Amino acid sequence: MSAQRDLDELKKLQESRGWAVLHETMTAEIVQAALAIANNPAMTEKEIDFRRGAIWAANQLLHLPQRISDHLTTDLQIQHANSAAKAAQEK
Length: 91
Fold this sequence. Notes:
Layout: H1 3-15, H2 17-38, H3 45-90
Helix pairs in contact: 1-3, 2-3
């Protein structure tokens, strides 16, 4: 697939109802995990670390489409710059 096509598909994903449902669900899960840490003073350090890891992973998932989109946009800009430089050299 081309970078532009991938970028278009990611945009569709981010605008879809399915992504909105996933985002809402993951956001609620993040809040629940944070509250579980805050509301349980007897929680072991290992359990706190596990929940912190779960929060981090969920947050990474929520931002993944934007991170990939940013990467693809940069790739496209580099491709355009290289094409323009190559065209200028050929003149």
